[in-house]
Amino acid sequence: MTAQIIDGKQVAADMRAELKTKVAGLKEKGIVPGLAVVLVGEDPASKSYVTAKERACEEIGIYSNDNCLSADTSQEELMALVDKLNNDPKINGILVQLPLPKHLNESEVLLAIDPKKDVDGFHPINVGKMVVGEEAFLPCTPHGILQLLVRSNVTIEGSEVVVVGRSNIVGKPIANMLIQKSDTGNATVTVCHTRTKNLAEHTLRADIIIAAAGRPDTVTADMVKDGAVVIDVGVNRVEDATKKRGYRLVGDVSFDTVKEKASLITPVPGGVGPMTITMLLFNTVQSAKIAAGL
Ligand code: GUN
After folding, report:
1. Which atom of ligand 1 is the closest one to the Cα of 96?
2. Is 97 marked active-site?
3. Are residues 60 and 155 in the same domain?
4. Whose CA is nearest to atom 4 of ligand 1?
5. For labelling, which of 108, 137, 240, 275 has a CA lying 20 to 30 Å from the CA of 124?
6. What strand order describes the sheet that includes 264-265?
7. CATH number, domain at 52?
8. For ligand 1, atom 8, which residue shows the shortest CA distance?
């Protein structure tokens, strides 16, 4: 079987067009959603995410407020900025780009963000609400994965899902979302990680594999059941002298061989990536609507 490619760019473009219309409607009511992005330091991958977020905001009409701080910013300075943004009525969403430099206390910063402006869905209040199935801002990458599955008509209910990776940003939340008693849940989920004894034993049983390990070739063709749906969340740089920039991006899945076994597969780039920022825009628009009492 040769897999159909899930075109994340197209799904993201469709959702962004829907959001653009929503934002135009809000503007007629005098409401402009605002997103603040905080970047500490010079990490090139983080910088390129932030630039992409800026562009996406502009594209759909969201006010974007960027705060680029030097790598030696103190905890107090960062906390003061978060406090200022919490109290700024023009700002509906606050995103502090992770990872933060080592000397900063990440959990203290995340805890300081007003949960009503936590469009990343990382505040423990929003995490807790998600886990108990209450309405909350859902973290963007897992929410984007869910949208890709739903919009590709993948059956989630009753499916065996294997998540590879247990990060707070992807693995843990996607596993939680998929076990919810909801229209987009009711799956049987196994979470595998670096201490899993026999990864292939689990992935071979999966109707849906979600690879979020952060390592190329974590999922190879011999680990995939015929007809499985494969979602690749990895973004890894591998050296490539044929490229001008000296590297290319690959996911966690051996794409060329796995696509011959899967029924549906996301590419890297152009799969999950474009959805993450789209869901951030979605949460920001949602937050602006709630703030306006709509
Ligand atoms: N770093 C990598 N992914 C993310 C994300 O979704 N949000 C934030 N804040 N930082 C990230």
Report:
1. 9
2. yes
3. no
4. 98
5. 275
6. 4-5, 264-265, 229-232, 208-211, 160-164, 188-192
7. 3.40.50.10860
8. 97
What pLDDT does 106 receive?
97
CA torsion angle 279 159 125 74 (round to 10): -60
How far, in Å, is the centroid of ligand 1 from the Cα of 221?
Answer: 29
Q: Report the domain count for the chain.
A: 2
Q: What is the mean pLDDT of the chain?
A: 97
- Asked whether 96 lines ligand 1 (CB < 6 A), one says yes
pTM across the whole model: 0.96
Is residue 140 within 6 Å of ligand 1 at its C-beta? yes
Work out the number of other CB atoms within 10 angstroms of the CB of residue 201. 12
Are both 178 and 62 inside the same structural domain?
Answer: no
Catalytic residue among 22, 118, 120, 252: 120
Q: Is residue 294 part of a domain?
A: no
Amino acid at 109: V
Q: Do 68 and 177 belong together in one domain?
A: no
